[in-house]
Amino acid sequence: xxxxxxxxxxxxxxxxxxxxxxxxxxxxxxxxxxxxxxxxxxxxxxxxxxxxxxxxxxxxxxxxxxxxxxxxxxxxxxxxxxxxxxxxxxxxxxxxxxxxxxxxxxxxxxxxxxxxxxxxxxxxxx
Length: 126
Hints:
- The protein is α/β, with parallel strands linked by helices.
- It has helices at 12-20, 38-47, 58-65, 84-97, 99-104; strands at residues 3-6, 24-27, 51-54, 72-77, 107-113, 116-121.
């Protein structure tokens, strides 16, 4: 089970599917952070030791060059076909396969798309 914060661009259907798969998922709406800056969203995820789930490509730059450089764990969804149950299943599989990566580093971006993922780690992150 993973601790996840779903960004406001993640549909409720996916959040619910992840909860059904026994993940501990909070949404931006649960925290009252609708419309918050990307940095504030990532800070909230970090503060609560959650992986940020988003479809916003800006988080890669924030982890690399922004004020939170080297601090944050993000999964970026890049799907063409939006089958939320399938995405939840693939996300669960990816989380299981990368659990050690998430535990061993403070800055990690996983880009997840149909049946595949790639990991980006930042130098200097612990």
